[in-house]
Design brief:
The protein is of the alpha+beta class. The chain has one domain. A four-stranded mixed beta sheet has the order 1-2-3-4, with helices on one face. The longest helix is centred in the C-terminal third of the chain and has 19 residues.
């Protein structure tokens, strides 16, 4: 899976990370290094909110997953129940995509706005994994 899924660092591309030109060049350079079949996940924070872009360079396709219920631009994402879980939802989106070796995430999110929220246990799982990761690297 490491060869199939790439990650674009949100600290390098989010709204407060340099000029638009610099961020655009960084993304373009990263995408040019793809082997063709690879997809890239790119968490993005335009300011006070997290969304996820998934880029399939070979297909020249970008998917935009926004977990906020009122954001209807991104109807292909599971919606969060309130306005505070978006970071965990974006991490859960990435986790679900990476854990599926078929990389058929388009089907996973195809129900769009009619799809229910993740159950709390799924969000708790991501919180626990993240906390364990951070604790491991703080020692």
């Amino acid at each position: 899976m490491l060869n199939m899924v790439g990650f674009i660092d949100p600290a390098q591309v989010s709204a407060n990370a340099g000029s638009l030109t610099e961020r655009s060049r960084l993304v373009a350079n990263r995408l040019q290094k793809t082997d063709g079949e690879q997809i890239f996940t790119m968490p993005y924070n335009p300011g006070r909110h997290w969304v996820l872009f998934i880029v399939r360079a070979k297909k020249e396709t970008v998917y935009f997953l926004d977990p906020l219920p009122e954001n209807r631009v991104a109807d292909k994402a599971i919606k969060q129940p309130s306005s505070v879980e978006y970071g965990y939802y974006v991490m859960r989106f990435m986790r679900d995509i990476i854990m599926d070796p078929s990389l058929e995430f388009e089907k996973m999110f195809a129900k769009g706005k009619d799809q229910a929220s993740y159950p709390q246990a799924a969000i708790d799982e991501v919180m626990k994994e993240w906390a364990e990761f951070v604790c491991l690297h703080m020692e």
